[in-house]
Amino acid sequence: MDQVSTGSDYRAREESITISTLEEQLNSQRTGQTTELLTLNIGPHHPATHGVLRLLVTLDGEIVRDLKPIVGYVHTGIEKTAEQKAYWKVIPVVERMDYLSYYFNAMAFCGAVETLLECEVPPRAQYLRVIHLELNRIMSHLVWLGTSALDLGAISMFWYCFRERETILDLFESSSGQRMHTRYFQVGGVIEDIPRGFEAKLREFIAIMPGRADQYADLLRRNEILLRRLRGVCPLDEASLLALGVTGPLLRAAGNPWDLRKAEPYCSYGDFEFKIPVGTVGDNYDRFAVRLAEIYESVKIIEQALDGLPEGPHITEDRKVALPPRHELATSMEALIHHFKLVTEGFRVPPGEVYYAIEGPRGELGCFVRSDGSSKPARVHMRDPSFVNLQAIAAMVRDSYIADLIATLAMLDPVLGGIDR
Amino acid sequence: MPDQVGLELIAGQLEQQIPGGVVATTFFRERATVEIAPGAVRDVLSALRDDHGFRALMSVHGVDYYPEEPRLGVHYELLDMERVDRLTVKLRVTVAEPTIQSVTPDWPTADHQEREVYDMFGVRFEGHPDLRRILMPEDYEGHPQRRDFPVGGEPVLFTHNDATSPGWTR
Amino acid sequence: MALTREPIEPGSFRARQLLARDMLRGDLEGLELERHVEQSILTTTLDRAVAWGRSNALFPATFGLACCAIEMMSVVAARVDIARFGFEAFRASPRQADLLILSGRVSIKMAPVVRRIYDQMLEPKWAIAMGACSSSMGVFNNYAIVPADKFMPIDVHVPGCPPRPEALMHGILKLRKMIQDDPDMGWRERYGAEGTEETLDAAEPAGA
Known about the structure:
By secondary structure, chain A is α+β, with helices and mostly antiparallel strands.
């Protein structure tokens, strides 16, 4: 890949170290002599690989010369399973793909099917979707922060982040009954309106969350160890990132403010005012800071959505797509027939192909659905951001230390469920 | 998205540059798709990048159109970040001759994605630096996401199923 | 007067009395001696004490595969605190762990790796299949995944998709109770096995 620059300036940053073996190795590098390269296997069972990722690193002492990620250790055949199920039964299957952003997986799929059906999503459902999507984004960033800090050695961050995560999961449980993989988004809207008490709990949460995020920032942002491990480490410039197809916070850390919520607003994101945090250098510290800042922006979006939540139905009124409310089944014959058809066979989608992209916590999450007119999709493909972002790891960590590899992998935020599907 | 007229303009220009390249255009649900001949894929994508500004390749994925022939399709999702335009380029190959040129030398992002299409559908990409299976084990036989590949699965191993699935406890 | 000798039932009080007499005389040897010592009251109490110690000091291995791993992390987190029971020391190396919590779906590429890790753990060791996918294929019944029972012995299955952290805690506590009260558990008794271990020379692991 000639057009991808490594951006490594280890030569410049190397301080004089008196360990002779290291100096010998550096000398031999300068004089161009080849040293013995060691190929080491990291993973798939490894505490720091954020899932079952296997890395074949070629090492020159402690310096990574080449890196090959090997994936597929949690491949579940989700796309093939989705072809066997009716459209609304695909939603739980597809949710389990990128297991930290399950609402986003469901949103991408539902959006694609709604486009195929030309089905209108009522505004209340759109705002509810936005609230849950942004809550999920905060939750995903919290898990990222907890586990990354764990990798870097700041172990207590794990418990703080998971404390907030528990509050968010309580909110998910109250609106849909499940903590994870909630099946809350349905084609045409959301499955149920939010219960009484949800709004109050949510307002409590958005009142405390910025303060908590400030606490995390205070703990980490000026910590000498964190700065030494993240500042100036493994940067990659914007052109290489774009060539590698990287999107999301990684691209924004390099300076490109590309965010699908602003560029191609979907699901009424255009109604909300929020900023896109953008980094400057594109090193690990910028990736860290961008994600931390996104938490604040998500809180703002949730607050605006909650304040402006319109009244109305929570799912489309089209009885050919969404189940009729239960009280209608007692009085209306058509409602009974619709209910029966939807539950046994499912709705039929006119033939066509659609690619629908949304902004997930890790980048562009796209869903391609091909329908052949029946009640089961003919092809479902999720363009997962982590799958594409993982290709950048080799370019990022070339010529840096193993410890930097671990830190960069943490800042990359790969979720193996999405990579392997 | 380029609208219908824009799509036809792009297709016309592509046809001029690469004769015989464009097979069909589709404008469906406000989305533009250009179907091209399999041999022209690298030229078409380069032309779209250099002349029409679609500089980001977002996704490369495969589709099995069974039972329609030609069966295997490969879709390229292109994105123009400046004008916020998306364009889908698709091509179809048969199972008998599933070889097309790899676009990885021009678009490094297609690396793992083409490997996935190879792994799941069997489409061979000539010129790919390292074409081997990515999601299935290296020695796996068959291409799972083809529509005539069985879904697989096992009966659930309840203890009372020992009568129907005998011997699993041994 | 005809002398009849009643057959002495093994395990009856008379038989144990005779064994005890033989041991005191120094007449018991080898296997008989071992068995006698095992069955005597002193060793049973010792066994129970060891089982109590083992059950309250489980070291789980860090083995998160997919979504269930996030709920396993929640078990470690503050709300459902696994440290209350003393199990917070998750060991990264399988040689130092004795509990394998298989959290997540096991794909066919991963199954040999899991088996290898399980073999590398030292006896006594236990395995919990967390979630529906590892116990029984779960939501995805297809070509790509394997239920854990096909390639390794599991002691406790925890259902759920993903199971709540409280459910996983319940499963771990059930395992703890099993270890305390009934060390000859499930599959070991059924197969007559010692356990599974990775040996350097043999192709087959020792035991089942």
